[in-house]
Amino acid sequence: NSNSLTDYQILITLDTQSLISQGKMRSDCGDIRFTDSDGNTLLNYWIEPNTCNTNNTKIWVKVPFIPGSSSKTIYLWYGNPSATSMSNGYLVFTFFEDFQNGTIKWTPVLLSGDRGSASAVWVQSPYGYAGGINLTDTMGYYASTAALVKNISISDNSVSYCFNAYAMWNVTYVRPNYDNYAIIISATNGTDTKTVAYRLIVGGDPCGTYWTAFSGTCGNKDYLCTPPNTWINISANLTNDFLSLCKFKVRNITQISINVGTWDNTIDGYATNIIIRKCVSPEPFVILENEAKMQ
Q1: In the predicted model, what is the mean pLDDT of the chain?
Q2: pTM to 2 decimal places
């Protein structure tokens, strides 16, 4: 990329399975470390869950400075049997949530419905802990909606931001048309606030026919016919989506919420490994050099 990048998150894909089988790395990848080009300054990193001890281990590293139209050397270290993991997404990304400490920093809110009740929920997922919102509607005059909400502030608009999360829903009774799930992100341009929804379309018979619970958003990205109890990866360029869907230039990202809607039913919506990170096009690419053994 022609622009210099600061505190940029790069993705490194590594075959840790081979290193572990050769006895060079701990089986839990806990001895992995990264340093800056001086070989001493430790860099923050995060290993994606369930990728250690595979041939496709995904590691995000926060690099302090990458010069434009040039290269940057950082070092990967491993092989210390007494080391413990320093993997920490909160120190790597602009925004990160894996719900390891529960939902204490999030607020459950009943948004609509005359006979609805909402509460925060916390479960184990294939990707670690997940937080979410439980909504029960007992056949009110109109459907209920609820959200698990967190206010945030990301105000550096000199770069674009990308969004990623794992999402899942389940309901007591699977029926067409009435059940909705979305992760909704709000942003301001200084004078106006708009929202984009990343929706898992729960119902619909035929597929694609559904009640639109989150019509107040200026733009939606839909994942149609997502089955219950199935984790879906949502990945998007958040800045571009606001531009293309809302004709809106983001100055400050202000809120993220996990939203559900239902009528005469109970629905749970979950998410984990929620990431907002810097992204540019083209992305920096990584070349792994030869391994060297330190004496």
Answers
A1: 90
A2: 0.92
